[in-house]
Every structure is written in structure tokens, then in C-alpha cells.
């Protein structure tokens, strides 16, 4: 776990008098924008086919969610110089690689969820690839795994070794600025909402993960969200927000994981007979944020083993590499959640 580091307080990012020049490109599955020293690309393709599912399940040792958009993702590249590059990446398969698997994962990793049908369902769960074929359902049980797909994935990074996240007690994302709606200063130059995966948990609820980005003349803002609803048990949200003001030398990341008992969220419904708002991520998020300062009684008693490791909030800052910093070959990807 990263220790809190005291960073020099950066000067407040000011909106540039002349916004960076930009260009857009739209293809069948790929949208992109190049703005200043940044190039951003979102990819949205159909769900994986049976062959792709088989390959990835073997690689991950995990039965994939019912709807796995394994070729989807978001790539954000900073290239101040041809020989210097920093990439932030948000990828479906990398996200699923963060799902706990193996015997005893509840005690080893934490966050196990117990419902009346969980054990029976987990033992009979079949791969989505089987549902796409005419072959008989297999009788062999699947390997133990977190059936809610509660990954704590925060993205991946590739670039110079000096590019790393450092925890900060002073940095913050300017949410009021992002909520502003000036038709000129806050014009949305680029937007996309990229689904990563979704599963109905065998009619026990819903798990969804997606990543959204918007680019304005003065900044870009990313929100990647995991939303888990286990009916009658709990809600989980794991948010990763990333902000960069053009012209500044830093990127700010906020990671926030919350969990709340299903009945506690339900108690905030205007009409207890209408459960529709419980499928609305924004409604659930607002309830959870309003109760975030309260004690741990909001956590469901049907969480087995250790607590879910995604709980908690942290803010981190990464200083951008200088134009003369060469991206060392083989620097590779590093998990942003470190």
C-alpha cells in the first residue's frame, strides 16, 4: 500500500487563454480525439464470441460475465515528444483479472457475498460460451471465484519509470468546475461511454462496469465505475475518477469504494413499493455518499471472510514526464491500484 507522501502544492491550473488545437476521428468501432499533447481513443465492439470467451476464461481461470465486451477499452496517451509517451489504459480483460479466484478466496482476498442461492448457483454456473453453442451443459462445477465480479481495478499505466501515482492529502478534483455548464468554456469536444462487462448474477441482482470520458477545452475527466447490486443483500460502488487540466503538469486520480446494506439503501425510497430507483446508479450513489460518514453498520452482515478490499477513498497525483524523458523499452504496464 502506498504511504501518504507530501507533495509540493502545485499552482492552481488556469484555463488557457487559447485552448489547445484538436482534431476528431470517428470509425466504425473507434472514436478518437487529438488535443495538444494528448491523444484519446475509445473502442466499442460487440461482446466476445465463443472462441474469444474460451481463450480468455482459460487465461483468467474465471467464468466470464454474461456480457463481456472484451475488446472494449479507453486509451489516453500523453506524447509531448516523439520519444516520450505515457499511456493510461482502461481495459475489460485487465479489469476482470482483478476478480478474486481460487479456493478460499473469501478469506484470502475478502468481500465474499452470501445469498440463499449463491452456493447452488456457483456450482452450476456455466460459461457464456456454452450458452452461445448447441453443446450440452457441462456437469463439471466451475472453479471458485467472486461471483459478483467485484474487481478493484483502477486502470493500467505504461511510461517512464518516474511516472507513478503518489498519495496526496491536499490534491482534489475540482467537481464544481466540472459541474459548470458554460456553453463556450465547457463545450464538450469529445464524449464516450464504454461498457466493459455486465452480469445479472443469475437473477440475484446486477453487476456493471463501464468507463466514461469527456474532453473540454480546458480539461479531460474520466469516470470508471463498478456497480454491484445483490438483491436483498448489499450494494457496492467502486469509482475511479481521473482529471487533468490542460497546461498543468499533473494528473489527479480519486479512487473511492463504498458498500452499503440493501435494506439501508431501500429505506431511502420515496415509495417502498417502487424499487425502480434501486436500479439507478446515481440514486444509489447519492444515498451511499450521504451515509459515507456513518459507521460500518452500513456494511452487510452477509459478507463472508475479510471485508471487501475495495473499500475506502484515496487521492493520488502523478506528475507528467518532461518532453525529454524517453519511455524506456519494456517499462510495461503497472496496475494503477498499487
From TrEMBL:
InterPro entries hit by this protein: Phosphatase_reg/MetRdx, TIP41-like
A Gene Ontology BP annotation from the UniProt entry: TOR signaling
GO CC list: cytosol
Domain of life: Eukaryota
Database matches in Pfam families: TIP41
Sequence similarity: Belongs to the TIP41 family.
Protein name: TIP41-like family-domain-containing protein
Lineage summary: Eukaryota, Fungi, Dikarya, Basidiomycota, Agaricomycotina
